[in-house]
Every structure is written in structure tokens, then in C-alpha cells.
Amino acid sequence: MRCDTADGLRGWRPATEEALYGPSGFYRRPEGPAGHFRTSVHASPLFAGAVARLLCLVDEALAHPAELAFVDMGAGRGELVTGVLKALPSEVASRARGYAVERAARPAGVDHRIEWLPEPPPGVTGLLFANEWLDNVPLDVAEVDAEGTARLVLVREDGRESLGEPVAGAEAEWLARWWPLTGPPDGPLLLPEAPEGPLPLPEAPGGPFPAEDVRPPAEGRQGPGGQVPAEGLRAEVGLPRDAAWAAAVASLGRGLAVAVDYAHFAGARPPFGTLTGFREGRETAPVPDGSCDITAHVALDACALPGARLLSQREALGALGVSGERPSLGLASTDPSAYVRALAGAGEAAELTARGGLGDFGWLLQPVGIPDPLPGGEQPST
Ligand SMILES: C[S@@+](CC[C@H](N)C(=O)[O-])C[C@H]1O[C@@H](n2cnc3c(N)ncnc32)[C@H](O)[C@@H]1O
Q1: Atom of ligand 1 nearest to the CA of 104
Q2: Ligand 1 center from residue 26 Cα (angstroms)
Q3: Residue 3 Cα distances to 19, 51, 166, 377, angstroms
Q4: Distance between CA atoms of 104 and 116, rounded to whole angstroms?
Q5: Which atom of ligand 1 is nearest to 32's Cα?
Q6: Which atom of ligand 1 is nearest to the CA of 137?
Q7: Whose CA is nearest to atom 24 of ligand 1?
Q8: Against a cut of 0.85, is the pTM above it?
Q9: Which of 27, 89, 171, 348 is the most exposed place for a label (fewest CB within 10 A)?
């Protein structure tokens, strides 16, 4: 494995890049992501069905174009694009074109009509959907040292860490704006509480919000006693994810781009970060040797571009007709097999929308040249 320093230490971003996507990286393995963890795509076909309904809403907003693209960004083994194309009504399916964008090679058995690409196709019209992609875009990690300086965390191939240079330049600016590494001046570190209610992405009336509206400047966030950098606080520097998302959105000619991921938001960032590993269905220490997935939750509010909307998976799937409601007991006596099917569907829907689970995932909706097509997504009028 290539290293940037003689003692084998380098930042988490290059270490993760090689561990996941290098020649013998984790995502080059034949078993694919589903061999190690379950996403909403694997949890239930109801998910692909809901995304197919969203594609139909995008189709309507685009006035039924001759070619309607569905771009599965970070497609894994192409499970979502396959399921979405199957779930479309025949008239829409006849105009739909499926693209799987993946760094891993095309697996055998994917429908030959699905194009397998290393980059999103440029200028298409339709829906770009990125389920659990951004959490696998490698990033650097910063940690506050004993003097209160945020330093780059360096890591060896066996996972042992040391602190490196102070974070500087664009990374330092990103931290100051999106994830300030500060705590109270004295006493114990106060862990932020998860926000109640809708996800906190303020929107300016009438649509696009200026970047300044997303959250107050750093001074405005300081508590009454002032906030100081606290030793041991960690942050994941989301800059490469912001850039990756902006590039994916820019690839769309017109339509909707959606990123779905484990997310956190300004005011409730995890004080020690979320970098972790997954192997064979279990959470494990993140060791950048290609043996496990390395993932960190996404600062989705930092990724949001003007005109975006953030909501939870529970809200988004609810708007697309997926809810965990049990079928009525009356159905059990009139049509027992329909009742059993409906009960199984309700169980799967409950998993997709569960509090403390997949339902808490963030959905970032980014319309491009069309109004927000998801019900309840109209921009307020000025
Ligand atoms: C966690 S898996 C999610 C797979 C699938 N979307 C799902 O929800 O089941 C993330 C996938 O993103 C792919 N990936 C990461 N960065 C990528 C990039 N820049 N372009 C294309 N695919 C990428 C990885 O190879 C991996 O298959």
C-alpha cells in the first residue's frame, strides 16, 4: 500500500480512498456491499417502488420527455436501478433509460439495457438518486489537540492514529463554517441534542437560500461564556462530499437529484465524529486495509445547494405512499392471503420508516430546472 510518509501515516482521506477503491479495495470485492450491510434497497422492494413513483413525479414535472433517465449513483450491484425500472408503469418504462454509476465493475447478470458507467452521464433529463453513496466518499478527519489546535488525524494501515499538521486552508474554512470544533470554556463537554421536528434546513421564502441563511456565522454560535476548542473533539471534513454532490447535480440537464444517507445537521453534530467500519454485517473499528467498509455520516446541510429541501426518509416515503400502517383486521376475514401479504408489506414499510433506524435517514432533494416534484414540496410564494 502506498503511503505519504515514511512511517506509514497519512490522512484518512487518502487512506480510505485506497482501502475502498484501490486495486484490492473493499468495493472491488465480488460479494458487493450487500455482502456486508443492508441498505434500504436491500431491506424491501417497497423502496424501489417508492423511488419509481418519484421518477413518475419527475416525469410529470418534465412534461413526459421522449427519454427519461434514472441514474443510480453509487449503484452497488445495480439493485436499485433494476428494481425501479421493473416497478414503472409500462408507458413510463417505454421511455425510461437506466444508468448505474459505479466505481466497481459491472456484475454479471445486470439487465443489458442498463448502462454501467464510472461517471454520471452528462446532460440527461430525469432523476439522479444516490442512496448511501456520499457516506462512502472519503474525507479527512480533524481532532483538537491539548493546545486547542485542530489537527489532521493521520492513520496507519492497521488503524493506529496520530495527529498531524494543523488543519488549514479550505478544510479549516469548511470546519469553521459547518462543524466548529468548540466546546464550553470550562467544565464538561456538553453533547448536543438531536433536534426535534423537521430537519433544520432554513429556506429563504421563494426558493434558493443564500449560503449565509443556512446557519449563523461562527461568532453567532458562541454561547454566553464563549466557546473554546476542546481537546479530543473530532470532526469529519465534508468538503469532498460537497464537491462530489455538486458535480453529480451539475451532471443533470433537468430533473431532480436526491441524496439519501445517514446524516447530521448544524447544531447537532456528533462531537467525536462518526467514522466507523462494517464487515459481514457488523460494525467494526475502521481499519484502512481493505478488509472493511469505512463510512462516516454525512453533513447533508453542507452539501445542499440553493433550492434544496431536506427531509427525513420517514417523511419522504410517507409522501410517496409508504407507511408502516397495519392492514385492517376486517381484511383477515374477507381475504386472508391478501391480509398476510399486506401485513408483510407493513412490516417492511415499518423498517424503512423506523425511528432510530432507516426512517431517520436524511433525504436531500435538489431540483434542477423544475419545481420540487415531491408532494408538499412546493416552494413558498413570496
Ligand atoms: C454503501 S454502497 C451503496 C450501494 C447502493 N446504492 C445501495 O444503496 O445499496 C456505496 C457504493 O458507492 C460506490 N461509489 C463510491 N464512490 C463512487 C463514485 N465516485 N462513483 C461511483 N460509485 C461510487 C461504491 O463503490 C459502493 O458500491
Answers
A1: 25
A2: 11
A3: 12, 41, 19, 47
A4: 10
A5: 27
A6: 16
A7: 74
A8: yes
A9: 89
